[in-house]
Structure formats: C-alpha cells, structure tokens
Specification:
The structure holds 2 protein chains of 2 kinds. By secondary structure, chain A is an alpha/beta fold. Chain A has helices at about 10-15, 30-50, 70-75, 105-120, 135-145, 165-180, 195-205, 215-225, 250-270, 270-275, 300-335, 345-360, 365-370, 375-390, 395-410, 410-415, and strands at about 20-30, 55-60, 90-100, 125, 155-160, 180-185, 190-195, 230-240, 280, 285. In chain A, helix 3 links the parallel strand 2 (about 55-60) and strand 3 (about 90-100). Chain B has a domain at about 1-105. Chain B is elongated. The chains are: A alpha/beta, B mainly alpha.
C-alpha cells in the first residue's frame, strides 16, 4: 500500500489532535471564491448536529494560487444564534495542506483517507469546494446514517435540472445500476459520507498511482463500496448548485475520464456483476422537497451538427465497434431532420455495452475509443432534450427509469459477449 | 625439355592445389546453405505458429497494417508475409555466410559490405514500422478531436496530417538507407516547404474571409454564432 506523506507540521498537527470521530474532507484547487461558504456550512453543520463529537475539517489542496488556503484558514462560522445554537462543546480543528502525489481529485481524497485513518475517525464526509447550495444540514445527512444508522457509504440525492447531469443519467447511473444491481442515483455526485472502516478499506487498495488518483475517484468510491458488500444508502440533500465550470472544459475529456473509470471497474469486478440481474432500491434518508431550478440554455441544433459530423467522419470506427446492424440504425438517425430526431433507448443501451466490450477487448487505444463515443453521446443528449423539453421533472425522471430498465433487460447480451 | 614440361605442369599443379583447397570450402558452403535453409524453414514454421497463437493477423487488422499491405497490392495474410520476410532474410544471411566460406577476396569484400549494411536496414525498418504506427495514431487522434468539435472536413485534415508524417518518415528511411541522401533531403525540403506555402496561400488568399473570421473570433472571444450550452454533463 502506497501511503501519502505529510509535511512535518501537518504530521505534528495530526499527532496533537490524536483522535477524531468525524473528518470532513474538502478537496480544492483555486476555489477561493466558494470554499469559504463550504467551510462555514460544514462548521455550522458540525456545531449544530454533532456538538458532542470531536471533528476535524481537512482541506486537501492541489496547489492553488488564488489564496484558497488563506480563505479556509480565515473562514469561521460565528453566528451560532442563526442556527439556534447556544454553544459548541467540542472544538473543530482545521488541517490545511497541499497534497502530494499525482495532481488530481483522487490524490486529494487519498490524503483525506490517510488522515481519517490516522485520527481513527468513525465517520468521514467529502464535499466539493465549489458548492454554492451546501447547507449545514448536508453534514447531518451525510454523517448521521454512518454514525447512527450503521451504514458504510452515503451517496447524495439531489434535485437537478432535467437537462443536467446527462453523463450520469444516460451512462453512469443506468450502467452501474444494471451491473451491480443497486439503484444509487448519483454514483458520481461528488459529496459522500462513509465510515472509518470503509476509508481504511479504500486506503488498502493499490490504485493511487493509477487514473483513480487523477479522476474517476467518485465512481471508484461508489462502485468499490457496492461491489465489496458495504452497507450503502442515500441522503436527499436538495438542489446542487455549484460555481460555473471552466467553459473551456472539453466534453470529450470529461466523458473519457468518467467512462474509462467506469469501464475499468467492470474489469476489476467482472466476477461480481456478471451473475447479477435486475436491481433493488437503496434506502434513502432526508426529507424530499421540490426546489426551484434555474433554466438551462441548450442548443440542440449544434448538438445534432456534432452528431452528424461524427457519423460522417467516425463512421469506420463506429462500424468496427457497433457492428453492421446497429451502425445502420445510427446511419438512419443521421438522415432524420432536427424535428424528427429520436435516439432509441435500445440502440443507446447496445452502444454503451458494445463500447464496454470494445474497451474489454482493447479494440483501440482507450482514449481514442471513448472519445470516439462523444458525438453519439451528444446525439443521445440532444434526443433526450428534444423529447423532454415540455416534460415536467417527474416525466423526465420516468424516461431515465425506462432507460435503466432497458440496460437491465439487455444485460444478458453484455454478460454473454464478455470473454 | 624438362623446363618445357615444368612450364606446362606447374600451372596444372597450381590449379590442382587450388582446386584441392577450394573443394572443402565449396562443400562447407553447400553445408552452410543446406543447414541455413532448413533452419530458416523451421523458424518460418515456428514463427507462423507463434503469430497464429498471439492473433497477429487480428492485431494487424486493428493497427492498419493489413490495409497498408492491400494498398501495396500484397494479398497474403500479415503473419504469412512476416514469415516470408523473416525466411528471406535468413536465406540471404545464409547465402552470404556460405559465400564467405569460399574465402574469395572479392566475395569476402561484398559480404563484409552486406553485413555492415544490415544495421541500417534494421533501423530503417524500425523507423518505418514505428513511424507508420505513430502516423496512424496521429490520424485517429486528429480525426476524433476534429469530429468532436463538429469540424466538417475532419477526415481530410486527419488524412493530410498522416500523409505529411508518412512523407517525413519515408525521407528518414531513405536517409537511413543512404539512398541518394542529398536528393532525398532536397526533395523533402521542396515537398514539405511547398505544402506549407500552398496551405498558407490557400488559407491566406483563398480563405481570406475564413481567416478574418477566425482572427476576429480569437480577438473578441465572442464570435460563436451559436448560443452557449449551459448543460452540466456530470
């Protein structure tokens, strides 16, 4: 097991603290604008809901140059009256340090797991540092199922705009659900709670020099917990609103990071997912309520141009991966007008399974393989947006449910083709 | 009279002596050729089995070698082709070794030249194989990146880049084999320089409006006629 190394002052600080029941990890990289709010919400949550527990906030930073660490040091929740709190019994310590190792969210988490292990934490939470909608209640909802409910892993449940989270909705959720038989709605949500024993289990895995250290940590944590039989639950956190993402962020790179991590886990746990058929719900905590969501601008015409250009230019690659039958169906989609365009869920399911099989057989270099899926994904997303534009949230959710059922019903094809 | 006889017999004796010396060398050459060819056949057979076991033909299909062979009008299987290549190389080496057994200075010189040329052939072959694989990789990378950006002529761009790389690789191979290096250098410079100038003229003159649009878009960062998507994909 490769362990993270801490600087002397961090090691001394951990030694001084000795032991903590709750560790809240916040990975960051140039999040000075938002991390102050996140730290205050965490402090408020710990003070209000876990006043008797010794807690530590860990900021694992990737070398920010915008003063993120200073903001964390200075952030302090003092208006306890606002949350109807008289006083806090146990102090909340902050450990702020730049993590070492491969740059990436996974390495930041590795350091947080290490500290949780050293402090012998009973419950851990990780939350993103760019959250604008986090409230103190998130901490209760992510920690309480572990401390009081005996669960090992708490996955988030959010209300999101029906057009948001399309990689989750059209690939990661249906696929992980069909593979591992558990309906974890936000497997790559980014805000999780987990037990100390699961943190130690994660630490024992020798993945910290792989792509898990860079990206894919979210799906890795969820899948590892499910596939290894840990008790998994979900908590409804409300709306997820975070800082605007880098507009230059490349969609195909994002797709590559998430999908390659998911496919790689299929290799690791093929013995686990192979015999599973169907799925079962995962219990959920929290009081579900409706939230107002900001409208989302979408340009489906441009998305369909990308799909058609993909078909024109990547046809040979798609033909090799999908086979003649499904490729002909994709070709037929290319002839439809914008108004007629509809991507059948059966076809989409077979495409994802065929890509998983091509990944398994290493039919192409992995990055090329998964990036070649981008126009197909964009076409599927455009189709969903066109279909769901007049739908309410529940109807849109019902469409996602139909897709999940399609993934489950066609799993035999994946299992029998996997050699 | 005795002198006269000596004049006739001495060359014959010399010839006989030379023949006596040549025969064992000739026999050695025959043995070397026989053993070498048998060994080459065995190696070819074993190689064919090995390549079949590691699915070399399927790998060649994926890497584009099969397509390259078909373009060159070679219709045998890639594994059979590689087997024939290795066999031919072994036969040539055997032939050279056999000829050197004759111990004839002119042939010896030729053999030395041949063996000193082998490293160049091998390094040229390596450059060709690795270069071809890299050019295929670059082709696919450019094709996928351009297609994902919605670029209309992605295939053309990818093919153009691969062709340029192949021209570069072939020049390196020719240079390595020392085949008219000065001509290769000049030809490469002319072709490469010509392509760059042609592209510059085509883009700067023929595509002046496109060039202006790209520059304006770069300066204003506001040139996209399509409204931005606000979808959070993850």
């Amino acid at each position: 097991m490769k362990t993270a190394t801490f600087r002397a002052e961090v090691a001394q600080q951990i030694e001084r603290i000795g032991q903590a029941e709750i560790v809240v990890g916040i990975p960051s990289y140039n999040n000075a604008r938002t991390i102050g709010h996140v730290v205050r919400a965490v402090q408020g949550g710990l003070a209000k809901y876990f006043p008797e527990h010794k807690a530590v906030i860990v900021n694992s930073d990737g070398g920010s140059i915008d003063g993120t660490s200073d903001v964390v040091h200075n952030a302090s929740f003092e208006n306890f009256n606002a949350i109807f709190l008289r006083h806090r019994v146990s102090p909340i310590t902050k450990i702020v340090f730049p993590y070492m190792g491969i740059p990436g969210k996974g390495s930041a988490f590795h350091s947080i797991f290490e500290i949780a292990g050293l402090l012998n934490a009973k419950a851990c939470v990780v939350v993103d540092s760019d959250l604008r909608s986090i409230t103190p209640e998130w901490i209760e909802l992510l920690v309480a199922p572990v401390l009081n409910g005996g669960y090992d892993y708490v996955s988030p449940l959010y209300h999101r705009h029906k057009f948001d989270g399309t990689i989750t909705n059209s690939i990661v959720y249906p696929l992980t659900r069909a593979l591992y038989g558990r309906r974890v709605r936000q497997p790559i949500g980014g805000d999780f709670g987990f037990s100390g024993s699961l943190a130690r289990f994660y630490l024992g895995k020798d993945v910290w020099q792989t792509d898990v250290a860079r990206f894919g940590i979210d799906v890795w944590m969820t899948t590892t917990a499910i596939a290894n039989g840990f008790k998994v639950t979900q908590s409804f956190l409300g709306a997820k609103i975070h800082d605007a993402k880098d507009p230059g962020a490349d969609l195909s790179s994002m797709l590559y990071q998430v999908v390659s991590a998911t496919f790689e886990l299929m290799e690791t746990y093929h013995d686990v997912w192979m015999p599973i058929r169907g799925s079962e719900p995962v219990p959920a905590f929290g009081f579900e309520y409706t939230v107002g969501l900001e409208p989302v601008n979408v340009n489906t015409a441009r998305m369909l141009i990308i799909f058609r250009e993909g078909l024109r230019n990547l046809g040979e690659i798609w033909l090799n991966i999908l086979g003649t039958g499904d490729f002909c169906e994709v070709e037929r989609l290319g002839t439809l007008t914008d108004e007629e365009f509809h991507f059948p869920i059966g076809l989409w399911t077979r495409i994802i399974y065929d890509y998983a099989l091509a990944f398994h057989k290493r039919a192409l270099p992995i990055e090329h393989l998964i990036k070649s899926m981008t126009p197909l994904y964009v076409g599927k997303t455009a189709s969903f947006i066109l279909q769901a534009k007049d739908m309410g949230q529940q109807e849109a959710d019902a469409e996602i449910e139909k897709l999940c059922m399609e993934f489950e019903s066609r799993k035999d094809y994946l299992a029998t083709s996997w050699k | 009279m005795e002198n006269f006889l000596n004049l006739i017999l001495d060359p014959l004796t010399g010839l006989l002596m030379k023949f006596k010396l040549f025969v064992p060398n000739f026999l050695a050459m025959l043995v070397i050729l026989l053993v070498g060819i048998i060994l080459a056949l065995i190696i070819k057979h074993l190689l064919a089995k090995f390549l079949a076991a590691v699915n070399f033909d399927a790998w060649s299909d994926r890497k584009g070698f099969t397509r390259l062979m078909r373009k060159g009008d070679l219709w045998s299987k890639p594994s059979a082709m590689l087997g024939t290549l290795v066999y031919s190389l072994l036969v040539i080496i055997t032939l050279m070794s056999g000829l050197s057994a004759l111990q004839i200075p002119a042939i010896d010189h030729l053999v030395v030249q041949f063996f000193s040329y082998i490293p160049r052939i091998l390094s040229a072959a390596m450059i060709l194989i690795i270069g071809y694989m890299l050019s295929g990789f670059a082709n696919r990378a450019v094709l996928i990146a351009a297609a994902n950006s919605g670029f209309h002529s992605a295939k053309l761009l990818a093919e153009a880049i691969q062709t340029l790389l192949i021209v570069l690789i072939l020049s390196m191979v020719m240079e390595q084999l020392q085949i008219a290096p000065s001509i290769v250098f000049a030809a490469f410079s002319i072709i490469f320089g010509g392509i760059v100038i042609a592209l510059a003229i085509a883009f700067g003159v023929g595509g002046i409006d496109t060039a202006r649009r790209i520059i304006e878009k770069e300066i204003t960062k506001n040139g996209d006629e399509h409204p931005k998507d606000e979808i959070e994909h993850i």
